[in-house]
Automatic annotation (TrEMBL):
Record flagged with keyword Cytoplasm: no
Lineage: Eukaryota, Viridiplantae, Streptophyta, Embryophyta, Bryophyta
Single biological process term from Gene Ontology: lipid metabolic process
Domain called Phosphatidylinositol-specific phospholipase C X: residue spans: 69-228
Protein name (record): Phosphatidylinositol-specific phospholipase C X domain-containing protein
Amino acid sequence: MASRKALSLLLVVVAGLCLICGNVQALGVASDPCTTDNDCGQGLYCFSCDGASPVCAIDSATPVSSFSQNYSLPFNKYAWVTTHNAYAIVGETSILGVTIVSQKNQEDSITSQLNKGVRGLMLDIYELNGDIWLCHSVYRQCYDFTAFRPLNTTLIEIEAFLTANPTEVITIFFEDYVNTTNALTTALTATGLSKYMFPLAKMPTDGSDWPTVSSMITSNERLLVFTSNRNKQAGEGIAYQWNYVLENQYGTVALTCDRRGESALLTDKTKTLFLQNYFPTNPNRTTACLDNSDNLSKALNVCSSATGNRWANFLAVDYYQRSTSKGVFKAVDTLNGQLQCGCEDIRACEGSTGPGICSVVTAPVATPRTPPPPSPPTALPPGTPSSAGALSSSFSALVVCLAMLLVAHSTH
Ligand SMILES: *[C@@H]1O[C@H](CO)[C@@H](O)[C@H](O)[C@H]1NC(C)=O
Ligand SMILES: *[C@@H]1O[C@H](CO)[C@@H](O)[C@H](O)[C@H]1NC(C)=O
Ligand SMILES: *[C@@H]1O[C@H](CO)[C@@H](O)[C@H](O)[C@H]1NC(C)=O
Ligand SMILES: *[C@@H]1O[C@H](CO)[C@@H](O)[C@H](O)[C@H]1NC(C)=O
Ligand SMILES: *[C@@H]1O[C@H](CO)[C@@H](O)[C@H](O)[C@H]1NC(C)=O
């Protein structure tokens, strides 16, 4: 009799646990089908690539610092999600009151990009009306109808993020058509960014490792700025990109990895940072879904072969949030894994005791989303599932289950 009682109790406990587990698993992990964001776990959103069935897609970066490799390694051992033409945002209107006719490459604000884990920003700058503007050009010339916004407004957003997040490091790549001496320096100073700039003197040019990310955080030198204008390195102390960074050709999503004209050979070992471009000449929201998916992962291996086993530190894409599931965030997890422990995912570096010693990456378990900020109560349409409803239905099922067991028990 006593053992029977114990068995019943065990059944109740098991049934209860199953219900609770079932409830957690109902949250989707990457690639699971969904109807709304609430069907997906933390860091995911419900996204449909232009008519395809919606799936839970990864929406923000894995914080590198949450794994064993944290920020104790040299800067060149990390990879960062990078937005190509980060400033060319769909739906923005210009303060000049004219329609922006240029191509768009991203869909959310710079602040939102940073909040989601983007850490590399590619920005094109031109002079317009006596100021510096983020702009696309027509034959190297910026016009009112191709200009997005004054550079200052974006620099202020970056400054606010660095100030609010004292352990984050950002890299800016300026495609720089600003010829006025010191104009860029003035903008960096006026917006409070100069104080965060990583000094030129600490940037290695002989193939040696960069300082560690943790030392960059400690010294509060958390902004790397590169310019495509050679004169500004000697003139203004802003690093000339091609002295430090290698790049493959942009404007192609073919599975090839050729050198970009301005870059040194991709096998040049004196330059310790590598930016991998993976976007077509004409940005396209539909094709971005596919480009930022399986082929993006394949492209990492293609470039690794072409560069003599180098893995990119910056992975630059258009419409970075778009993919059919894991997208650029998964690709950057792969790059961090390769850079830090020779494994295919940063998670496999946990507990790694040497290159290529990879721990088994278990399937991710969906963690509940952080509740959204409180909003005025709204009536749910009848039958709308909610997490509170799911919990209470688990609870009532548990009660029913318990009652049935008790009934079954008493009849014996
Ligand atoms: C970072 O990793 C190193 C080496 O594994 C470890 O010694 C250090 O305590 C870690 N730091 C943090 C902040 O987790
Ligand atoms: C800026 O300088 C470059 C190189 O000297 C020159 O080709 C270009 O025309 C100049 N641009 C403007 C807007 O003056
Ligand atoms: C904006 O940038 C210009 C340089 O183009 C600078 O002179 C000015 O002080 C900046 N304004 C603000 C509000 O930061
Ligand atoms: C992936 O790339 C290959 C080779 O360039 C191409 O044939 C294929 O269509 C691409 N796949 C997708 C889904 O875009
Ligand atoms: C984007 O690509 C799709 C599929 O190839 C094509 O049908 C569409 O016309 C393209 N859109 C633009 C704006 O180029």
